[in-house]
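Researcher: Re-running this chain for the archive, since the previous output was lost when a drive failed. Same request as before.
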Amino acid sequence: MSAHAPTTSLRRRLLDGDVCAGPFLKIPAPEVTELAALAGFDLVVVDLEHSPFSMETAVAVIRAAAARGIDAVVRTTENAGAEIGRALDAGAAGLIVPHVSSVEDAREVVGHARFGPLGERGMDLYARAADWGDTDRDAYLRHANEEVLVGVMVEGSAAIDDLAGIAAVEGLDLLFVGPYDLSQSLGYPGQISHPEVVSAIEQAAATAAEHGRVLGMYVDDVDTASRFRELGVRFIGMANDADILRQAFHLVTEGLAGHTACRLEQR
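Model: Regenerated structure tokens:
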């Protein structure tokens, strides 16, 4: 709803067939989000589950994303109404909710994330997402239900077994594969290219397509992104800010090795 936000919502772009990519964020600094936007990413994922983010720093990142013309999606710590509501009230363009393994879990997510009649999200008409009450109330409620991306993590064998039912839940947009947890659940920890893991991802892709849902996935590198893009992945969680920065630092120090008498020569 912000004047600086992308003119077409992330949800609409993905459902219309666009491929959108952006890193997960572990560093709670809005400057990283600005750099991601300047690099050309479509979005960032504020990772509350596996990072030191607080809700206050998450809000700062959501604001920085809007100011730079990209979207901020929040991965919550759990399927909890209070946390989901706070993230959406803060203006997140979407959600990825972990630990969803059943149709009942998926219905709870939608209930927490959508206003009636689709759900029972707590209604704050004076939230930041509603421009502190400055947006027409009907327009705000309609926008929240029609333009906010609601996704669940597919990261275990139980979720794969119940995937068709999960994908059929009304109000759900995104099935996001967590490949490492999935590989562990299937008995091949860390082996995301194992045939059984790839088969599960292919099943997720087919199910997402059948039900008109978006398939998302976390990837470590561009080659992996390209490979799984061919399977139908449209929401690409492109590594994370800490790993991207670590690799960039290594490239610089490797280039400087032999040209300095400082710590680099001691490596």
